Amino acid sequence: MVNFNDPVILIASPLFFAFLATIFSAFYKKAVKFFPLAAFLVNAVVLLLNINNIINGAGIVISKTAGMNPPLSINMAMDKLSFLIASIATILGILVSIYNIFYIKDERDSKFYSLFTLLVGGITWISVTGDLFNLFVAFEVTSIAAFGLVGFERDKDAAEAGFKYLVLGILAGMLLLIGVVLLYTATGTLNMADIAMKISSFSFFQKLVPFTFIFLGLAIEGALFPLNAWLPDAHPAAPSGVSAILSGVMTTSSIYAIIRVTVTIFNYYSVIPFFALFAVPTLFFGEVSAFFQKDIKRMLAYSTIGQTGLIFLAFEIGSENAVGASFAQIINHSLSKAMLFLIVGAFIQQTNSRDVESLKGMGYKMKVSGAFFVLGALSLAGLPPFFGFASKINILLSVVDNLNFYTVSYLVLIVAMSLVEAAYFFRVIKILYTRVDSENNIHENAGLLVSIIALGLVLVFVSLFPAQTISFTKSIASQLATRSYYIQAVLGGGIR
Amino acid sequence: MIFYVTSLILIGIGLYAIIIKKNLIKIIIGLDLIETGVNLLIVSVGYINNGTAPIFSKGISASMMVDAVPQALTLTSIVIGASELALAAAFVILLYKHYGTLDIRKIRSLKW
Amino acid sequence: MIRSIFYSLFLGLIIAAVLMFLVAFPFGQNKMGVGQYYLDNTVKETGASNVVTAVTLEYRGFDTLGEMTVLFAAATGVSLIFYLSDEEKKKKKRENNRTKANFVVRVGSRIIFPFVILFGIYIILHGHLTPGGGFQGGAVIASGVLMLYLANPDIQIGRNKLLVTEGLAGLTYVLIGLAGLFTPAKSFLANFLPLGTPGFILSAGILLPLYIAVGVKVGSEFSGIIDDLFSTIDENGGEE
Lengths: 496, 112, 240
Prior knowledge:
The structure holds three protein chains of three kinds. By secondary structure, chain A is mainly α. Chain A contains 20 helices and two strands. Chain A has helices at about 10-25, 35-55, 80-105, 110-130, 130-150, 155-185, 190-200, 205-220, 230-235, 240-265, 275-290, 295-315, 320-350, 360-365, 365-380, 385-400, 405-430, 445-465, 465-480, 485-490, and strands at about 60-65, 75-80. Chain C has one domain (about 50-230).
């Protein structure tokens, strides 16, 4: 019988529906808008079939292609961390697909839906692949779909942002590829677990050169300072549903890849402290720039940079609690940032302006959206009783656990940046709830509300069980630390 | 060794073009140079002295062949590079339609 | 000036570091890991004579699926940017009064076109036996289309036909892959067709249908990109 929980289906299903969408766009365009939804519902079923095995069972699901055992062929390896990223991508994929059905009004929509399916499918692909060259291919699929979607509006902003993103994205891909090729030269294999096994005999320098290339490539994709010039342009230029995916989970997937490469493949704990050189300025630059933005989508995009810095900083501290808290922050950031982008999209659809000031009084005119905006903003800024509080407090606690000269400054930085974040979100909330008398026909779009409310409920659900969620993310961190388990699971105790 | 050096120099020239040049087309050429350099690097990594192409025919055995994997990787990376450049060209045409120039300094917010 | 010298030095440093890394793995030395296994077992396991094809489509067939997806995404992106509705296209065509090419060029290109396509098909079908395959053959087919477009400004491929072709080719690849899940090997892209005699055209199991799908897809994808890029040309022969 077929294994319907095979992780390869997570990738095959979006590709299948993207290709099918092209055929249907030729003669029956109306059906195409439901294809992304169908693709991610299939993925959700596959993930549900795996959930027991991941949480209670072996904790890792391996799938091979071409009937060959790894390292001979490309394999998929879904461990807890991959499962987390794939689940977030799938949840956001389903909800944003519903949102897009009501948001995208354009005769080119069938192409849009193909690319959107590939974007979210590519993120899932990044998270489950067990082969380094395949990771490069997955990054290319994701980023090329993203380039096209950023250019979707075809106006001046979209053209500029798209080109900027494209040049840096291609550069990132090439740096990643150089790193992968250097690793192939040294080890003669491309399988992550196989490389991880063979790399233990390498000297520091031999690890450093390929690692630097791979890290720089992924750092561009993950928008770490100073390589993040593209993000504040690209994320706002895309349609709001796409911004939600780009900000919510695409930068996160690059952070995932950095973590996977550093810990699982290179076992390179000696460079992790240096990640602070990237994480601290990313956090500082992102949050401070966000504070000065007049454009609401740009503000959210800078806030994404800040959040990425925070996630990366928490990972950099390195203790199991800290890494677990950083994954919790990934959950919080993805859900709330995506929801904020969706709500802002609903506002923009009514006001046709991205200026913060144009949102005056929207909290009264669009009551539900306004309320959920407050929910998302509070959770993102890390205020109780929402999940963001739990994840941020865990990051702070883990800093306190490893207190030394450097980490004291982290403590100050994280608290200060949380205050900055709270400040600009409260400014927006204040604008939302400023009464204005002008009576124009602004009304809620019920279709858009479906996914906003659903995403808000997911966030509330997570907020209701903070302890359980944190303990799950800690179990992810402890699984990540035992890389021999990953290697053995993939290589099956050594073939050949 | 000359192949390694050449491919790295190509990559270097490409990176230099992306950083220094202000013309959109020249930036794309820089990207293409990087891709060519990387492809050359991949193929030269797989070469084995006195090896033949990895295709079986009369009088050719597996021990005489060069590594096939880098060649397959090159095939993949060439196609990926070609499609990226097509998209890049499309964006340049779009920018030119909006601004009537290819000079990156005259395009409003494109700062590097 | 100072800036460019600084960057040159920086790039030189990177190149030097990579060269220092590569010194340990000299050019021309046998560095094969899994590569050796592929060379030794390709004929036995896949029935293909061309090891590169076997690696591309069988051992690393999943990469090829990704690469086709990349091409598909890029072509979709290009047509997203240059999309014109049918009315706009017609209007443009009416305004477009480009000088016609010489009679010899016009007729000659039409005569050569079928042979270019034939050559492309030949390359695709022999991908598992000779150097060649879906990508190369597909590119040759697209170059034939490019020649037609250059010689005949008023020619227009039916975009819907191209869309259906590329979609079907992509679906074929995914479905052949998924079919592998139902075979005893229970894995994506497992080679479930008979391997045949190495060296004959009907050999190597699923490799031939996969490469045909790749060839059709590459050909139609690149033709679509060519069509999109040509649709931006205005009456002066240049860009707007």
